[in-house]
Amino acid sequence: MNKELKDSSTPVQNSLKNEYENFSEIRHLIVNELKEQVESVLTALDSNPVISGRIKNFTSYFSKYLRLKKAGVSKPKITDLLGVRVICPFIEDLAAGENLITRNFDVIEREVKGHFTFKEFGYESTHLLVKIPASIINKYGDPGTDIAEIQIRTILQDAWAEVEHELVYKAEFSPFDEPMKRKLAAVNASLSLADIIFQEIRSYQRKYSQEMGKRRESFFQKIEESTDKLLFVNEQEKPDTSLITADPFSSDNYDASIDDLLVSALSAHNQNRFNEAINQYTKILELKPDKSICSIIYKHRGMANFACSNYNEAIKDFSSSLELDGASYKSAYYRGVVYSVLKEYSKAIDDYTLSLTINPYQSFCLFRRGQAFYHISDFPQALADCENSLSLDPDNKSAVKFKELLLGKLRM
């Protein structure tokens, strides 16, 4: 610091401190209001970011003022005096969050801070300077600035920023030699890699969930076509297999991970390429994953076999799933469905009962067991199951229609 600046710093400091303290209460109110507005805007995100407001303390404020004076700025303007920090779980949230803020606030400057060499280690973070909404200033008064900073980071970026701030930024000197700088850069790189991996896992989960949802919808439609029509039409219709595509899996690539193979199998399953899906499920089983995974894959393959009307193979797969995981109530339920389609109603009832023993809160399983009881002419038990199903899912139109049918039978 030059002598002229040093000599004048005390009166300047006192003057700035008085000004700082005069605005203190208003600034706290404005930061809280700004934080609430940011929270409201970011409710559109799939994730739940952690949002906090902050006011730069006077020591930091004055230090930055002096640095700007030393750099030749005659009238330093501290633009990050008031701030809101948004901490997101995943990398994908950063761009989405920034887009929402840009659409809802007047952004006057954007800066992405980050250093990745061993000579300049640091963190990556998006900083947006926004105009404080006039509605907030009109409500609380002039805070001495019309600009606030919104920072957007991932959890890991924020963790690095906090530690780096203590180790480097706030230190009066940094006696790090080159090996120490490289270690810090390696930590930074590791956190960045972890962020990327977390995002990849998140993206995989989303894709898996989407494919699972499509597969369930297709499977349940097949169940309805194969069972409900037996109750409500006079002549049994042959299950529709026109959607089955003869498109056998031709790739012999065993280098793909189980996750990749599973998503690929589910994708084929959802596109009604059932033979291809069955082959891919088989390839996963040949990789000999642990029992819990095998149980899931057998269940999926059983559903694909059911879609192809390979009922005996479907029964074998659901049985294998149950042998590996005795708590797989869905496998028991699915096997019961197959037995119902084959008109082996006593076996179907046993499987539905097994499934309900494991998990009694299944409206659909109660409904299907009631159908099986109907087909062996046990109408009172069928009605009991139907009513219990409706108590769990009152909006099931098929169950409502089934109840009317049963009441008609019991009046005869």
Any key phrases for this structure?
412 residues; alpha+beta; 5 strands; 65% helix; disordered N terminus
Explain briefly what this protein structure is:
This protein is α+β, with helices and mostly antiparallel strands and 412 residues long.
Description:
The chain has 412 residues and is of the alpha+beta class. 65% of the residues lie in helices and 8% in strands. The protein has 17 helices and five strands. It has a five-stranded mixed β-sheet. The longest helix is centred in the middle third of the chain and has 50 residues.
Helix/sheet category: alpha+beta
Question: How many helices does DSSP assign?
Answer: 17
Query: What would you report as the Rg, rounded to the nearest angstrom?
Result: 32 Å
Could you tell me the number of beta strands?
Answer: 5
In spatial order, strands of the major sheet run 1-2-5-4-3
Largest sheet: 5 strands, mixed
pLDDT < 50 runs, ≥5 residues: 1-8, 115-122, 232-255
Tell me the series of helices and strands, N- to C-terminal. Answer: HHEHEHEEHEHHHHHHHHHHHH
Whole-number mean pLDDT? 81
SSE order and pairing:
Blueprint: H1 3-22, H2 24-41, E1 50-55, H3 58-70, E2 82-88, H4 91-104, E3 107-113, E4 125-131, H5 134-140, E5 147-154, H6 155-169, H7 178-227, H8 229-232, H9 258-270, H10 274-286, H11 291-307, H12 311-324, H13 329-341, H14 345-358, H15 363-375, H16 379-392, H17 397-411
Parallel strand pairs: 2-5
Antiparallel strand pairs: 1-2, 3-4, 4-5
Helix pairs in contact: 1-3, 7-9, 9-10, 10-11, 11-12, 11-13, 12-13, 13-14, 13-15, 14-15, 15-16, 16-17
